[in-house]
Amino acid sequence: MPSQPIFVVQLHDARRRHYDVRLEVDGVLKSWAVPRGPSLDPVVKRLAVFTTDHDLEYASYEGVHRDAQYGSGAVIVWDAGVYTNLTRDDRRQLVDPAEAIERGHLKVQLHGLKLNGAWAFTRTSADWLLVKVKDADADPMLDLTVAEPRSVLSGLTIDELAAG
């Protein structure tokens, strides 16, 4: 039985600090830059800019980029885990994640150290939106980006990592 695909959320202090939400799909990490980070409030829609695919090995990267390939600046692994694809078509058939992204709507169940529950990625005319699905893991009063600033790998904040 194949293992579940991984997800990772990396906090990246490039030109602007943002969260990169990455999902393993067909052997690569499909990636969205989320400027304000994931929200646990189902009413809040977060801008999610679809970016370039990354190699799977990048999921555990922490450090300071000195070149422009992935944007210079410090990177920490803010959250990580596995996910379950929940995307269904009109006939209630499961839709492959790559096809769901192509169609412009992907729904996943995250099983992370910080983020849990269902989330939806939806393409708009210009970009994508990331929205927490209303479920038992939704919490409009909790901002995990403030409450849990540390890396799940190193335990460092992004500022501590950047300072060396």
From TrEMBL:
<dbReference type="Pfam" id="PF13298">
    <property type="entry name" value="LigD_N"/>
</dbReference>
<protein>
    <recommendedName>
        <fullName>DNA ligase D 3'-phosphoesterase domain-containing protein</fullName>
    </recommendedName>
</protein>
<dbReference type="InterPro" id="IPR014144">
    <property type="entry name" value="LigD_PE_domain"/>
</dbReference>
<feature type="domain" description="DNA ligase D 3'-phosphoesterase">
    <location>
        <begin position="10"/>
        <end position="123"/>
    </location>
</feature>
